[in-house]
Amino acid sequence: MSTDNQKGLALAVSSSLFIGASFIIKKKGLKRAGATGIRAGVGGYSYLYEPLWWAGMITMLFGEVANFTAYAFAPAVLVTPLGALSIIVSAALAHIVLKERLHTLGIVGCVLCIVGSTTIVLHAPKEQTIDSVEKVWGLATEPAFLLYVMAVVALVLLLIFHYVPQCGHTHVLVYIAICSLMGSLSVMSVKALGIALKLTFQGQNQLIYPQTSVFAMVVVTCVLTQMNYLNKALDTFNTAVVSPIYYVMFTSLTILASAIMFKDWDQQSASQIITELCGFVTILSGTFLLHATKDVGDSSSTMAHVKRPEDTMESEEIPLRRTDSLRTP
C-alpha cells in the first residue's frame, strides 16, 4: 500500500469513529427536542436549540473533516467503504445508550463489515496523480459524468417534490435516497476541493481558479441537503435501520460516481476489481444482516408481549414502513 493510501486509511478509520458516535449523540438530541417542541420528522427545527444535538454535529464535523482529508490522499473506492466502521460504532452505541437491540446476527453482521473492509483495503487502487484543479474540472465535465449529475439532480427533485409529501414518513428509503444521491456528488466535490487544498499547501496555489469555488459551492449545497434529510430520517426511523441502509446506498452511488469521474479501476486487473467487489458485497451482507436482526427483534418482541406506552417511548423501535393508524405525529 502506498504512503498516501496509508494516510487516507488512517483518516478514514478515525472519521468512522467520530461519525458513528455522532449518530447516537444527535439521536439523543433529537429525542430531547421532540419532547418539548415540533419533531424534525414532521418539519420542526426545535433541535437547533438543543445543545446535545449540536454536540453531535460537532462530533460529526470532526469526522467529516477527517473524511474530507482522506479523499485528498486516497481514492474513493478505498475511503468510502470504510464507512462501514461507523455502522459498527453506531450499532454498538445504540445498543448501549439508546437500548436498541443488537442480537447475535447483528454481531455477525459487524464482523462481516470488518472482513469486507479489510479486503478492500488490501486491494485498493493507487491514487492517480493530479497536478491541478483544472484537471479535476476536466474530469468532472466529461459527458459520462455530466449525464450522471443530471440524472442525480432529476431524481432528487422528483423525490423531494413528489415522494416526500406522499410517503416520506412511512418509507425510510425516500429520505435516505435523497441523502445518498446528493452525497455521491458531495464526495466528488470534496475530493476535488481536497486535492486543490493539498496542492495549495504544497506551494501550487489552486484557490485562484474559479473551479475551486464552484466545487466548494457544490459541497455546501449537497451537505446542507444531506443534513436536513438525514435529520428527518433519524427522527422518524430507528438508528439501527437508518445507518446501514444509508451506508449501502451512499457507498454504492459514491463508488459508481468515482468510477465514472476518476476512473479508479482503469489501472487495475480484473482479479483486483472482482476482489474489491467481493469485499464490498461482504460489507453489504453485514449491513443487511444488521437490518434483518432489527426486523427479527421487532417480530419476536411483538409475539412475546404487548408493549406498554412507556416502552414504546423508550425504545422508539420503528420498522422500515411505519403505520401511523394508531397515532398522529
Give a verbal description of the structure.
This protein is mostly helical and 329 residues long. 75% of the residues lie in helices and 0% in strands. The protein is globular, with a radius of gyration of 20 Å. The N and C termini lie far apart (51 Å). Residues 297-329 have low confidence and may be disordered.
Largest sheet: none
Which sequence of SSEs, written as H and E, runs from N to C? HHHHHHHHHHHH
Average of pLDDT: 80
Overall strand count? 0
The percent of residues in helical segments reads over 70%
Cα shape: globular
Q: Output the radius of gyration.
A: 20 Å
Low-pLDDT windows of residues:
297-329
Walk me through the topology.
Layout: H1 3-36, H2 51-73, H3 76-79, H4 84-96, H5 104-122, H6 133-140, H7 143-167, H8 172-201, H9 210-236, H10 239-261, H11 270-304, H12 309-315
Helix pairs in contact: 1-2, 1-4, 2-8, 4-5, 4-10, 5-11, 7-8, 8-9, 8-10, 10-11
Provide keyphrases for this structure.
single chain; 329 residues; mainly alpha; 12 helices; 75% helix; disordered C terminus
Brief digest:
The chain has 329 residues and is an all-alpha fold. 75% of the residues lie in helices and 0% in strands.
